[in-house]
Amino acid sequence: MAWACFRGRAMPESLTSLPERVRIVEVGPRDGLQNEPSLVSAEVKAQLIERLIDAGVRYIEAASFVSPKWVPQMADGASVLERVLPAARRSATTLAALVPNMKGLEAALASHVDEIAVFAAASESFSRKNINCSIDESIARFEPVIAAARQANVRIRGYVSCVLGCPFEGEIAPDAVARVAARLFDLGCYEISLGDTIGAGTPSKTRAMLDACAAYVPVHALAGHFHDTWGMAAANVLAALQRGVATFDSSVSGIGGCPYSPGATGNVATEDIVYLCEGMGIATGIDLGRLADAGAFISRALGRETSSRVARALEGRRRREAATH
Ligand code: HMG
Ligand code: MG
Asked: Where is each Pyruvate carboxyltransferase domain found (predicted)?
């Protein structure tokens, strides 16, 4: 058994044992649609979320309450949440929203979200481009947001962006990621999602970054958030699974990216993660066929092909089977 160190205490390191179950955080309606050039109506967003719920997805980041001047695609968050709240409550699905400041928190609470997410970066340049302030200023801004959310009994997730590289600064040291992750965790975020915003990571870099973070934040409170720009996202998910990470963010059909990360493509497709995990005997609770149907729905609405290799393979198999009957 290999051992790692968590705040001075020796902890067993799960290098070989994979989790029995993973939690999928579906971020397509937020991370995906925030970066699609075509505006999608609140009604279509709501239909997408309801289809995801039907497929068994139980955690959905449905909206963001950021400045509409910065991200106009997310301006209709309140309307989306109002439409999907009944289906989410019926199915015990957690609805979350991204929040950058007190104004965003107030809007999110008024929309009855179950959780919020605050978002910092491991890179100073990205922090300034994305939220117009330094890393220190962002953490100071989140302090009252987190305190008020806790008072309202709303759980808080924390994001760290640029964990495996920055579009403006290049390489980011694992220790820089770990410092920001630790600060968010200590402020009261129950989970830290580690974002490979530009999708440039590799499995060995993923392992080094996770090991640095695990010195400050328990592994069960870390989540992987991989974008697939360089085609490494599934390999990075596997590397993270082997380090004991059991929560992954993904976006149906692989839609989206980040408006402040030029050239980055969407998140790893949820279909690909579900296929990867279920194929290794790791339960996701998600019906792959229905999930692919939700992906086909939003791809049609956006007028583009799915980015999911698994969805394409499934569709090909369906066509071949239909042709032989
Ligand atoms: P600012 O311009 O410095 O802030 O922006 P401000 O306080 O001066 O506000 C400017 C205007 O926006 C004002 O309106 C405010 O009222 C309004 P005006 O007086 O000019 O008419 N405003 C708001 N309106 C609605 N909701 C709000 C809000 N706040 C201010 N919450 C700010 C600072 C943080 C607001 C801005 O930079 C912003 O909204 N940034 C968001 C950028 C964003 O959403 N990026 C994508 C999400 S991060 C991501 O995708 C990465 C992630 O997926 C992980 C990964 O992949 O790495 C999470
Ligand atoms: Mg992202």
From this structure: 22-292
For residue 25, what pLDDT band results from cuts at 50, 70 and 90? very high
Q: Two tokens at 237?
A: 């998910």
Q: Which domains does the chain have, with CATH numbers?
A: 19-323 (3.20.20.70)
CA gap 148, 225 in Å, rounded:
26
Mean of the pLDDT values across residues 71-100? 98
Q: How far is the CA of 137 from the centre of ligand 1 (A)?
A: 14
Q: How many CA atoms lie within 13 A of 160 on its CB side?
A: 30
Strands 222-226 and 247-250: parallel
Which of 25, 61, 66, when mutated, tests ligand 1's pocket best, judged by the most ligand atoms within 8 Å of its CB?
A: 66
**Whole-model pTM?**
0.95
Burial of residue 170, with CB atoms counted within 10 A of its CB: 0-12 exposed, 13-18 middle, 19 or more buried: exposed
Q: Can you give the pLDDT at residue 45?
A: 98
Nearest CA residue ID for atom 43, ligand 1: 130
Q: Is the CB of 67 under 6 A from ligand 1?
A: yes
